[in-house]
């Protein structure tokens, strides 16, 4: 072998690049993710497939590379033609070892964002979470639970049982997407770990098949279950105060003191005051990090501008064939989306002098979609289940045909 050092150098460099590539395509490094310009998430599937191939074939690729490296490494270290080659080779091996450790121990998503070690879900009477904190609320079979965004935003997912039903409560701070899923993949209850990001959205890997699932849609985008979706469960975002007013017997997820520092770093996020490049809020409408309310009915989607909602308090429109009312609470952060149909009657709502009135019967309503006076007193509008607050870039990326 005439040039063992050159071969050693090339093989070591390839091993280093391989380890970097394994994490580069699924973490928010410069140029690694697409989507902040609002382009379709389909554009990034090629690099996700490449990342998945590197991930699933990582062991044998690494072993093959090390076997190929062994002989030139022996020639360079034991019989170097020049002393400097031995030192450079040793340095390269140290660099490779450092990269190997960093990628597999420090930079993997599930090593950066950990699950609760001491999970506490307590009755409201024992709650220590401020009532003004935003929560993702879920109720089933007479039991309700509130999950503070400050907590699940760090954990990214929390497993729980509500009303006897196993649930997977998820949140992605970079997309501002909160979703609750039934953790059932291919007909079996499964475990999931945070594996990285796709299009700036959290991505989970199931334990049974190793498929990768997109958090914003619950769709498997790589692996044996590609194309399948996790069953989504309807959840609502509001302050704990408003959630507790609707569900006075609610339970509340408490902070695991193990992660006090991480939770402290999240305290400004929920109100849009984060300074982080990926988690900050654009105050101007229809910018990548602007807030929208995304609503989905059937095959139709529409995005409603959060700034306009705060100004008008309500927005009456239609998503596909479904007439909807988007209403904001007086706290300026809790919201609800309701169908404007009452049996065969279609209602038209106006917000006048601090009161929400329908023009057809002049009944008065709350932002919760309940009539409190007039001919329709006691009537409750039907909630639209798929309604979310998220960043505009996220909604547009995963719903490229959305109306606005």
| Cα shape | elongated
Largest sheet: 5 strands, mixed
Percent range for helical residues?
Answer: 25-40%
Number of helices: 10
**Class computed from helices, strands and strand pairing:** alpha+beta
- The termini sit apart by 65 Å
- Whole-number tally of structural domains: 3
| Amount of beta strand | 25-35%
Radius of gyration: 25 Å
Low-confidence stretches: none
Could you tell me the number of beta strands?
27
Rounded mean pLDDT score: 91
Strand arrangement within the widest β-sheet reads 1-15-3-2-14
Topology:
Layout: H1 4-24, H2 45-56, H3 58-78, H4 83-106, H5 109-112, E1 121-123, E2 134-140, E3 143-148, H6 149-155, E4 157-162, E5 165-172, E6 177-181, E7 184-185, E8 188-189, E9 192-198, E10 201-206, E11 212-214, E12 220-222, E13 232-233, E14 236-239, H7 240-246, E15 251-253, H8 260-265, E16 291-297, E17 300-305, H9 306-312, E18 314-319, E19 322-328, E20 335-339, E21 341-342, E22 345-346, E23 349-352, E24 355-358, E25 364-365, E26 371-373, E27 387-391, H10 392-398
Parallel strand pairs: 3-15
Antiparallel strand pairs: 1-15, 2-3, 2-14, 4-5, 5-6, 6-13, 7-8, 9-10, 10-11, 11-12, 16-17, 16-27, 18-19, 19-20, 21-22, 23-24, 24-25, 25-26
Helix pairs in contact: 1-2, 1-3, 1-4, 3-4
Note the main attributes of this structure.
3 domains; four-stranded antiparallel sheet; 27 strands; alpha+beta; 30% strand; 404 residues; Rieske Iron-sulfur Protein; single chain; elongated
